[in-house]
């Protein structure tokens, strides 16, 4: 990897285009290096994973609204929308499928200087691949780039410190991945990356306070923007430049300011793109920092005879967990039993309480209003708090994968004074966890989420196509869509009439 120092440059300064971060990203995108077998294998896993969570979310209102928007844009030779027949405009297919993937907060993650769900790249690239008649090999190459760029940006540039939403790393990564997949010239990719970043910067209010359905829509919007940015760049249109380093650019005014410096690692010429293998998916439908606490709660449950005897629970954890989904956020909504699913998903206090009581976690039952409003749950929930522990924060940011941790130490004090403690560094499904996810676990997750949603024969057809992705020929990527049972689609809630 080559470490690139990125900082604000004066307009009067000699700063060649080839030195812009957007251009260096474009250089990675055009590198003809072959995709390693482990990268290609993990790409297949993540396509299956995205289909699993889309099946689980397909009848939910935000997903239904996005799907119905896309269905107003039919297009011969277009792209598929998850769950339904027909072909539609690729940018709107990317939009609808992106919402389905993100709605339940149940797919892959990478955490470093910032946060990300790199599987959000997949809907945009699949939609465009279907539109242009790309092959499975082309798609794999594009997704290897998209994952690499997003993860490398997340390693080097912290957005959340300045309250910028993490999808600002997604627009550029999807644009770069599309450039690789389409075999575009370096200058076209450079312009598309700049446009995509310029149009996908927004505040983190979408993940603060009373969290709304826009949390699911934001990544889909970034994917749609990336498709449109590439389309414009292919037609000869340009972008603000230098987008990161300019005097009025992203670093100077949205991030650390004119004196800030960031180090972004990118593969050198001929270096394989392996970043996807450093990311990890979720066994539980909850914010990633909750994955290990859920497993920890399930493990600790047998050590407490009666949860009514609990006096207090303190989770000692990282800065991120404490301030984003813990009591350090200062959000009273995180203790509100009437809060939205999106808000409860970002309350580790609620999640730990339910997992401790149930010894399990379910993507629907664990968030049901009647579940959140159980008096004994509310009582236990309000006994839970978080504190930042410097050691957990250090491990969170560690570059050593063997000590990098996203968990917590739980200190449970009972009314009789007994103290029960335990800790878990990584979730059971993490590559270093008790039960790491491999192909069998991804297929099992799809089968569980698709049960009663997708006919058994259709499940088998899809998993065969996804598993054989590398051998799918040009024009065959429509096989990556999944048809949902008619009665499931009919159960989707009514949505208001829009403009379109």
Automatic annotation (TrEMBL):
Family of this protein: Belongs to the PrpD family.
Pfam family, one: MmgE_PrpD_C
NCBIfam families: PrpD_hiGCgrampos
InterPro entries xref list: 2-Methylcitrate_Dehydratase, MmgE/PrpD_sf, MmgE/PrpD_sf_1, MmgE/PrpD_sf_2, MmgE_PrpD, MmgE_PrpD_C, MmgE_PrpD_N
Residue span, MmgE/PrpD C-terminal domain: 284-468
The organism of origin for this protein: Gordonia phosphorivorans
Keyword hit for Cell membrane: no
Broad class of enzyme this protein falls into: lyase
Keywords annotated in UniProt: Lyase
Source species taxonomy: Bacteria, Bacillati, Actinomycetota, Actinomycetes, Mycobacteriales
Name of the protein: 2-methylcitrate dehydratase PrpD
Gene3D superfamilies assigned: 2-methylcitrate dehydratase PrpD
Domain of life: Bacteria
Domain named MmgE/PrpD N-terminal: residues: 19-262
Gene: prpD
Tagged with keyword Electron transport: no
């Amino acid at each position: 990897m080559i470490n690139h120092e990125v900082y604000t440059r004066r307009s009067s300064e000699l700063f060649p285009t080839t030195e812009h971060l957007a251009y260096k990203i474009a250089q990675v995108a055009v590198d003809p290096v072959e995709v390693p077998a482990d990268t290609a294998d993990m790409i297949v896993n993540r396509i299956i994973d995205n289909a699993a969570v889309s099946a689980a979310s397909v009848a939910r209102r935000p997903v239904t609204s996005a799907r119905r928007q896309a269905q107003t844009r039919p297009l011969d030779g277009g792209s598929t929308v998850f769950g339904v027949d027909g072909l539609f405009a690729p940018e709107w297919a990317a939009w609808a499928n992106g919402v389905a993937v993100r709605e339940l907060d149940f797919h892959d993650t990478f955490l470093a200087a910032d946060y990300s769900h790199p599987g959000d790249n997949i809907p945009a690239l699949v939609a465009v691949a279907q539109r242009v008649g790309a092959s499975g090999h082309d798609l794999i190459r594009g997704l290897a780039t998209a994952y690499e760029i997003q993860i490398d940006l997340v390693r080097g540039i912290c957005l959340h410190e300045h309250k910028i939403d993490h999808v600002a790393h997604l627009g550029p990564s999807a644009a770069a991945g599309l450039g690789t997949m389409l075999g575009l010239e370096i200058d076209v990719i450079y312009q598309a990356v700049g446009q995509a970043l310029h149009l996908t910067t927004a505040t983190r209010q979408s993940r603060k306070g009373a969290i709304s359905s826009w949390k699911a829509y934001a990544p889909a919007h970034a994917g749609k923007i990336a498709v449109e940015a590439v389309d414009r760049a292919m037609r000869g249109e340009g972008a603000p430049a230098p987008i990161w380093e300019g005097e009025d650019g992203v670093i100077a005014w949205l991030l650390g300011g004119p004196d800030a410096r960031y180090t972004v690692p990118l593969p050198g010429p001929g270096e394989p793109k392996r970043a996807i293998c450093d990311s990890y998916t979720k066994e539980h439908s909850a914010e990633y920092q909750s994955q290990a606490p859920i497993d920890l709660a399930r493990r600790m449950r047998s050590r407490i005879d009666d949860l009514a005897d609990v006096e207090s629970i303190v989770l000692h954890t990282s800065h991120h967990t404490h301030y984003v989904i813990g009591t350090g956020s200062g959000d009273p909504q995180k203790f509100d039993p009437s809060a939205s699913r999106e808000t409860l998903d970002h309350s580790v206090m609620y999640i730990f309480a339910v997992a401790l009581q149930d010894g399990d976690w379910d993507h629907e039952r664990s968030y049901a209003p009647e579940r959140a409003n159980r008096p004994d749950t509310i009582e236990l929930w309000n006994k839970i708090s978080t504190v930042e522990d410097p050691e957990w924060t250090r491990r969170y940011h560690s570059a050593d994968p063997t000590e990098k941790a996203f968990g917590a130490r739980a200190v449970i004090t009972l009314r009789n004074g007994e103290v029960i403690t335990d800790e878990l560094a990584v979730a059971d499904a993490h590559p270093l966890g008790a039960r790491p996810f491999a192909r069998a676990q991804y297929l099992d997750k799809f089968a569980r989420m698709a049960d009663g949603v997708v006919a058994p024969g259709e499940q088998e057809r899809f998993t065969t196509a996804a598993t054989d992705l590398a051998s799918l020929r040009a024009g065959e990527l429509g096989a990556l869509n999944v048809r949902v049972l008619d009665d499931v689609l009919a159960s989707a809630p009514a949505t208001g009439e829009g403009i379109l």
